[in-house]
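Appendix B: complex inputs.
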Amino acid sequence: MVMETTTYDPSEFPAFAVTVDIVVLTMAKARLHVLLVQRGVDPFEGMWAIPGGFKRPDETLDEAAQRELNEETGLDGGVDVRQFRAYGNPGRDPRMNIVTVAYVAVLRDIGTPAASTDAAAAALIPVEDALSGRVPLAFDHATILGDAVDRVRTDLELTGTATAFLPPTFTLAELRSVYEAVWNVHLDAANFRKRVLAEDGWVHPTGRRARPGAAGGKPAELFRAGRRWKHGSPLRRRKATP
Amino acid sequence: MVMETTTYDPSEFPAFAVTVDIVVLTMAKARLHVLLVQRGVDPFEGMWAIPGGFKRPDETLDEAAQRELNEETGLDGGVDVRQFRAYGNPGRDPRMNIVTVAYVAVLRDIGTPAASTDAAAAALIPVEDALSGRVPLAFDHATILGDAVDRVRTDLELTGTATAFLPPTFTLAELRSVYEAVWNVHLDAANFRKRVLAEDGWVHPTGRRARPGAAGGKPAELFRAGRRWKHGSPLRRRKATP
DNA sequence: GGAGTTTTGGTTGACATGACCATTACCGTG
DNA sequence: CACGGTAATGGTCATGTCAACCAAAACTCC
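Resulting structure:
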């Protein structure tokens, strides 16, 4: 039956709670990390979960995601936040019918985990630990996290969102380490430089140089992020070669 | 405030209706078409809309999408259906708070538009007409359709879903026309053949040949669809070269 | 039979890519 | 301060990829 051609009574429809979950990914110690909160109440008490909250009727989904991100991290604007999937399996929340719309946010390293409101129950966990089950997640959040990482992996190839992981100014080695960590590959430093610089508009030189690390080495040039292409990446994902 | 660490009363949360909309795309006359239904009731009466319906509490979102697809087209299994985005802007439905989860289904040409239940109000419309506003769509369905087409465009590159547009057995010219229509490009027939056949497992030869069209020409080999890769396509999207 | 059309096979030259070496410019240490 | 170590940067080169193009094959229609 085609719904649109019939009349209906709004009170007849099953009511759902709609939540927005936000997978906050960041780079720490050359590994991908996710911001998780520890549950303090009954279902899955003590387990870790992806932060989120209820959508309000007067805001868009994107606004709800931004609000949640702000409540969790204190960050406000200019953050790379993208919706990637909705989850509505019956029983995914034992209490009621909940459909959740999941977002992924890519942040540069914040340092102190969740320095905002409820710091005692929030932490940055290595993605590998959460996905392998070493850190068990509540609800269907392991699935959600896995999908989020997949999304970032292809976004890195398609939209070149790698700079979102980095501070406003960065070296090419730092940019390369983002690709290496997210894709789990090894990239040749010289070839990486050539390809990134060949695509003009991707990164802009600042003229300044970074201080070398404790191990020494020639000081690297500092770059700013340029525009991001919508499609057709200069960099292509390869097989894993760790 | 971190929601998970507080207790709450389920009756306090805003209730939403959750619907599943399904964008059915198919290839007709070498152009991309979408299945639309004509609305018969008040909001946007007479305008065209993407078919959809309410999610039931006891089914998953994917099941709801399959059910809707079956109700609209009579097709049951083996159809390429993928969720791509949720929409929840306040006021997107003037009657109530509705969050919709949108799916895209890629079908081979069905011939008679929506031969199933409510045929009088369903039609295959060229995507170009719907996106250009020549055929105005109800609600925010123009946005949804645009996102669906974008999704299919990149899926064609990433997952090689092109064979879903075609009958079980097809020629390389037909396969090529899918890429040309969806990407709006021109591809060289000889080069296309080489690349498709180079990637083994993508298509399998059947040994049979197709009858040439009315214009004549050498009879083309018939192929079956092979596996679809998850990532790393043999074919790469290019600039538009019509 | 001949012109037209489409598929299929082959060649070629331009360009992209990856492996690798060399140089530069810093670090710590003695 | 000279020296070995390290990382960034610059260059070369062999290989692979890809698009453009040509030509043969095999059909239809007239």
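The CA atoms of residues 203 and 226 of chain B lie 5 Å apart.
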